[in-house]
Amino acid sequence: ETGVTQSPTHLIKTRGQQVTLRCSSQSGHNTVSWYQQALGQGPQFIFQYYREEENGRGNFPPRFSGLQFPNYSSELNVNALELDDSALYLCASSSYSGAKNIQYFGAGTRLSVL
Amino acid sequence: DAKTTQPNSMESNEEEPVHLPCNHSTISGTDYIHWYRQLPSQGPEYVIHGLTSNVNNRMASLAIAEDRKSSTLILHRATLRDAAVYYCILRDKGDDKIIFGKGTRLHILP
Q1: Those residues with Cβ within 8 angstroms of residue B66's Cβ, 6 or more apart along the chain or in another chain
Q2: What is the pLDDT of residue B36?
Q3: Hey, is the C-beta of B3 within 8 angstroms of any chain A C-beta?
Q4: pLDDT, tens digit, 9 for 90 and up, residues A31-70
Q5: Closest Cα of chain A to B77: distance in Å?
Q6: In degrees, to the nearest 5, what angle opens at C-alpha A11 toward C-alphas A81 and A6?
Q7: What is the predicted pLDDT for the residue at B93?
Q8: Is B36 helix (H, G, I), strand (E, B) or coil?
Q9: CA distance A8 to A12
Q10: Average confidence (pLDDT) over B39-55
Q11: Which residues contact A65 (CB under 8 A, 6 or more apart)?
Q12: Which whole number is the average pLDDT over A95-108?
């Protein structure tokens, strides 16, 4: 059973550019959640995908968008990058079952915006 | 989402038990109490969760107060590898997302 994998591990972009981050969910999981973690803070929920549909969104602007594919892998896209978008982006997969479910996290993608 | 309050940091000696407190005075009857931890340079990792009764697993124990307004994560014998940020989280029964606070940074002294 493979765990959650994210790519790339590190990325450097300049302000105004666009970025795509990728996540492969754990085998058997149909739900993917994305989080942003600024330095010294806890992760902040961006959005969640369940069976290829967005299933909840945190307080992030529309330039943060995502996709989930039929194999339940997922992408996070960020347009018009700003300096404050520099953070660790975490992906978590789970089997949708409400508050009792366990989310399994990847190691994250570290994005630096210059 | 109901909020939790945790100490910013704690210290413990290696091979001793560690009790990590969490206050959640506004918890609702359908909120589950979850604990995750984040080791350095890794994503968060599930530790344990419960609703009303105390829970044990191979990693830790969760002691829940009778009025559910507080809980304690217990690491029975801390190792250096347990040094991490520990997050206490409330999740409503229909809620699949996790709302993280700042957590408690646990330092383990050799």
Answers
A1: none
A2: 97
A3: no
A4: 999 999 999 999 999 999 998 999 889 999 999 999 999 9
A5: 24
A6: 105
A7: 72
A8: strand
A9: 10
A10: 94
A11: A76, A77, A78, A79
A12: 82
Closest to B99 (Cβ–Cβ): which among A31, A45, A107? A45
Q: Which two tokens stand for residue A43?
A: 């992760």
The pLDDT of residue A80 is above 60: yes
Strand partners, B106: B10, B84
pLDDT band at B95 (very low <50, low <70, confident <90, very high): confident
Tokens, residue A88: 């660790």
Would you say A43 and B45 are in contact if contact means Cβ atoms under 8 Å apart?
Answer: no
Please tell me the distance in Å from B48's CA to the nearest CA on chain A: 9
Using a CB–CB cutoff of 8 Å, tell me whether B100 touches chain A.
Answer: yes
**What is the model's pLDDT at position A99?**
63
pLDDT of residue B88 exceeding 70, the answer is: yes
CB B35 within 8 A of CB B89: yes
Interface A-B: count of C-beta contacts within 8 A: 69
Tokens of A61: 């602007």
From A82's Cα to the closest Cα of chain B, the distance in A is 23
Token couple for B95:
């809620």
**Phi–psi pair at B101, nearest 5 degrees:** -95, -150
User: Distance between CA A20 and CA A48 in Å, rounded?
Assistant: 16
